[in-house]
Design goal:
Strand 3 (55-56) and strand 4 (61-63) form a beta hairpin. The chain has one domain (3-181): Collagenase (Catalytic Domain) (3-Layer(aba) Sandwich), CATH 3.40.390.10. It has a five-stranded mixed β-sheet with strand order 2-1-5-8-7, with helices on both faces. Strands 3-4-6 form a three-stranded mixed β-sheet. It has 189 residues and is of the alpha/beta class. The longest helix has 19 residues, at 119-137. 35% of the residues lie in helices and 16% in strands. The protein has helices at 3-8, 26-38, 64-72, 119-137, 156-161, 168-173, 176-182, and strands spanning 15-20, 42-45, 55-56, 61-63, 78-83, 87-88, 97-99, 105-109.
Length: 189
């Protein structure tokens, strides 16, 4: 069965809607679409949405929760909200992204991922962050294996060190539904 037939029959392959928020570079959306499609993911995107009222002027950051709510309210099996604003959640100085676990919605920021990064490094970081947050939507917790995409990144060094794929243990932890959705989008190391 080829990919197109599998998609039309609802068998396998994750379906993702990219939701850029106002200000996101269109090149980032194009890169993500290309990289996810190359991994067997069915990707759609919508026009940029206005940012919700989430700014915290004292911190100079945005609360991630309201952006996640917008993503949650968008049609799609899995919805990735993308912003260029610096995000945080309660108890953390910053987050690269947050996701429902399990669930459908993700929001992540390009703001810190771009620090000190050329084009290729940024593109690698974006893919790793997306794969990490999608893993949470499929019920995967953080992994102690530093090279696994599900390893918690406390810094850009952590992100740069890990791969954009699941370790064998995390791959096995996916539910049957998670394995069906992932299809070929994650290879096992």
């Amino acid at each position: 069965m080829d990919r197109r037939q599998a998609l039309s029959e609802g068998k396998g392959y994750m379906r993702i809607t990219l939701v850029p928020f106002q200000g996101v570079d269109s090149q980032v959306v194009e890169w993500l679409m290309e990289d996810l499609v190359s991994r067997g993911v069915d990707v759609r995107h919508c026009a940029p949405l206005p940012l919700p009222d989430a700014a915290d002027p004292l911190r100079g950051q945005y609360r991630a929760g309201p952006l996640l709510e917008v993503a949650r309210g968008t049609d799609g099996d899995h919805v990735l909200g993308i912003t260029d604003r610096d995000l945080y959640t309660d108890g953390l100085n910053f987050v690269f992204g947050v996701a429902e676990m399990p669930g459908k919605a993700v929001v992540f920021s390009t703001h810190r991922l771009a620090f000190g990064a050329g084009r290729e490094r940024l593109r690698e970081r974006l893919l790793k962050e997306v794969q990490h947050e999608l893993g949470h939507t499929l019920g995967l917790p953080h992994c102690p294996e530093p090279r696994c995409v599900m390893h918690f990144s406390n810094s850009l060094d952590d992100t740069d060190h890990k791969e954009a794929d699941l370790c064998a243990r995390c791959r096995r932890r996916l539910s049957p539904e998670g394995r069906r959705l992932v299809g070929t989008s994650w290879k096992e190391r």
